[in-house]
Amino acid sequence: MPALRLSASTQDLTRAARILAEGGLVAFPTETVYGLGADARQDHAVARIYKAKERPEFNPLIVHVADLDAAKDLVIWSEAAQALADAFWPGPLTLVLPLREGAHVSRLVTAGLDSLAVRIPAAPVAQNLLRAFGGPVAAPSANRSGQISPTRAAHVLEGLGDRIEAVVDGGPCAVGLESTILGLTGTPPTLLRPGGITEEALNEVLDTRIALRRETDGITAPGQTRSHYAPRARVRLNAVDFEPGEARLGFGTVPCDLNLSPGEDLTEAAANLFEYLHRLDATGAATIAISPIPHLGLGIAINDRLSRAAAER
Ligand code: TXA
Ligand code: MG
């Protein structure tokens, strides 16, 4: 059965919420990327996420909730968490906090860890769905493991259309890059994945400077496996000149097939990144060559995704 394509209407979101309650998989838009949602309390539903994504077992999932009270039911809250939530929630920030004893989530969500990743998304469609459902929704990005993340309902259907019950079509995602993941289980806070909220913005809110996760720390986040976000085509980074036959993804004033941001705006580039990779991959080109992107602000997260897209598979 192909996935139902639902709209963001109240009626359709009620239907989506019912499918979640019945243990089904519903992809939905957040401001970062489309998530593949399941009721975080149902083992069987959560297990189906891993199966649909072909995700290696033991990689924990992010739980999405509608408000602070729902978050505090699941994790042990702290002053740092409160400061970050005040500044960035709802929004593209995920906090990893100690799991509260007796929290009602499947062990498959945390993959057995004693911490939980939680986030309140800002996109109105995600908010409305979470309120209609009234419980925690586990949701990784709605792509097959290792492939390009989805920022449009069409991307979800391409990758998972025959494996899920429904997708809520809320149009393109505004941020276009996954949330920043910050570990708050120890001191100092640790940046587990760069994303939609920059490191500078986090440091402005916290008393202690955040630590960066090192490659040698082991894989605590599958988005952190070296090959990830990969198109079918080979990816060539920091391309100053383009070669014949390459699909050319530009940034700034360069001749190219698609331009992430002619005016060198990193926010615009982030929003376009995954959609343009999808489009250039669909041309069938053997190589996608990509202009250099500055390593500052959102450019850090963009370069993180691009280096993984280009990594040895
Ligand atoms: O923007 C996003 O974060 C999107 C949307 C749908 O919310 N979700 C997303 O999920 O990117 P996913 O599964 O693709 O990435 C979640 C990351 C993984 O890299 C996972 O390892 C990490 O969060 N994670 C989850 N729980 C964790 C935990 N307890 N400790 C450390 N990392 C954790
Ligand atoms: Mg992902």
From TrEMBL:
Keyword tRNA processing appears in the UniProt entry: yes
Major place of residence: cytoplasm
Q: Give the matching Pfam families.
A: Sua5_C, Sua5_yciO_yrdC
> From the Swiss-Prot or TrEMBL record, what is one GO molecular function term?
L-threonylcarbamoyladenylate synthase
Q: Which reaction does it catalyse?
A: L-threonine + hydrogencarbonate + ATP = L-threonylcarbamoyladenylate + diphosphate + H2O
Instruction: List locations, semicolon-separated.
Output: Cytoplasm
Q: Which UniProt keywords apply?
A: ATP-binding, Cytoplasm, Nucleotide-binding, Nucleotidyltransferase, Transferase, tRNA processing
EC assignment = 2.7.7.87
Whether GTP-binding counts among this entry's keywords is no
Name its GO BP terms in alphabetical order: regulation of translational fidelity; tRNA processing
Highest taxon, organism lineage: Bacteria
GO cellular component assignments:
cytoplasm
Query: Entry's Gene3D superfamilies?
Result: DHBP synthase, Threonylcarbamoyl-AMP synthase, C-terminal domain
What does the similarity note say? Belongs to the SUA5 family.
Its biological function?
Required for the formation of a threonylcarbamoyl group on adenosine at position 37 (t(6)A37) in tRNAs that read codons beginning with adenine.
Put simply, this protein is called Threonylcarbamoyl-AMP synthase
Q: Which organism is it from?
A: Mameliella alba
Tell me the classification of the organism that encodes this protein: Bacteria, Pseudomonadati, Pseudomonadota, Alphaproteobacteria, Rhodobacterales
